[in-house]
Amino acid sequence: MASAPSVAPVLAAGTIDQVIGWRRHLHAHPELSFHERETADFIFATLESLGGLELSRPAGNSVVARLRTGRPGPTIAMRADIDALPITEDTRLPFASTNPGVMHACGHDGHTAMLLGAVRELVARREALGGEIRFLFQHAEEVSPGGAEEMVQRGVMDGVTRVIGTHLWAQLEVGKVGVPSGAVTAAPDTFWITIRGKGGHAAIPQQTVDPIAIGAQVVTNLQHLVSRGVDPLDSAVLSITQFHAGTTHNVIPEVAELNGTVRTLDPVVRTALAARMERVIRGITEAHGAEYEFIYERGYRPVVNDASVTAEMAELVAQVCGPDALAPMRPVMVGEDFSAFQQKAPGTFVFVGAARPIDGAVHPHHHPKFDIDERALETGVRIFVAAAERWCGAP
Ligand code: NI
């Protein structure tokens, strides 16, 4: 498609070139979650150069910029995540990662650059704004417990009445924007199961308690929880992704270790599923004379888009990007700790289409050949700017 239609807000000359430059710099210098030191320094220095902001580094490698207008009005927050992934890049882009084994394979380089672009624009428009606009550059989105929660604990959401975030999305074509209401991402929980039996000779099973045979029953029965225990109109995934036991062909081992993930959108389904899992594991192991250990670790909360903020955002996206831009979007069962900010203020998380093929195919997020269409960056900047103008327009 052609470049974004020229409806308000019109960006200053040079903003988009700068955003692309920032994105390429960040892309070439990715850093892992909780280790984003140079990234945070770069963001801080860039914000300092834009001037007129109150800057802080509240937690970890996060950076927060406050644009206080000095006029009455609400405080709104806008968030970008800044971390990269442990992936070896295979895009052959001229600005590919120079940090071996680390790659911006989820688009967070673009998120950071878009938000910096929005800051540049909004600093220039501050005389037309009221209230406060708070820009949250969040470290460590990719690794639990995530950076958002500790930022919230340090008070970055205090006084905020609305929070918005964007994610560049390779599953949407450039020019399209997904603005889903309600649950958007899942709670990504992790579990570990240890089944302790009694080892022995493979040819004398009657003297053993075989943790492999019992573990196989556990795997099979856990599958029933989603298919038989969850309302078909609710969403849940239960995947067992590791099953380790044994050392050789003629020994029944003592222990089997299983590991996997549960993804849910609804907190009631989430709690019920964890409880039923334990019931199944307890029942099967007890029936066969084995012992078990069950560890269930809760990941991020689901991102749930507030109905009224999301409706306003959809209207705004239609104005900024054209009525055809709005794309239907179903929830995705990935995790995202933007939800931590939504605990403090109603907010919305929108998906900006950014599909760009490499070697003939659009590769998914977290893939070594993942890339974004840089035209999407302009869409993101304009959405942020338009949101600030709508909610913090001068009184
Ligand atoms: Ni991401």
Description:
Strand 1 and strand 2 (63-68) form a beta hairpin. This protein has 2 domains: 15-183 and 303-392, Aminopeptidase (3-Layer(aba) Sandwich), CATH 3.40.630.10; 187-297, Alpha-Beta Plaits. Helix 1 (15-28) runs antiparallel to helix 3 (108-124) and helix 3 packs across helix 9. It has helices at 15-28, 37-50, 108-124, 148-153, 211-229, 267-287, 307-321, 338-342, 375-392; strands spanning 54-56, 63-68, 75-81, 132-138, 160-169, 177-178, 182-183, 187-196, 200-201, 236-245, 251-252, 255-264, 291-297, 304-305, 326-327, 347-353. The protein is elongated. It is 33% helix and 23% strand. Strands 1-2-4-3-5-16-6-15 form an 8-stranded mixed sheet. By secondary structure, the chain is an alpha/beta fold. The chain is built from 9 helices and 16 strands. Bound molecules: nickel (II) ion. Nickel (II) ion (NI) binds at residues 106, 108, 141, 167. Nickel (II) ion is lined by residues 106, 108, 141, 167.
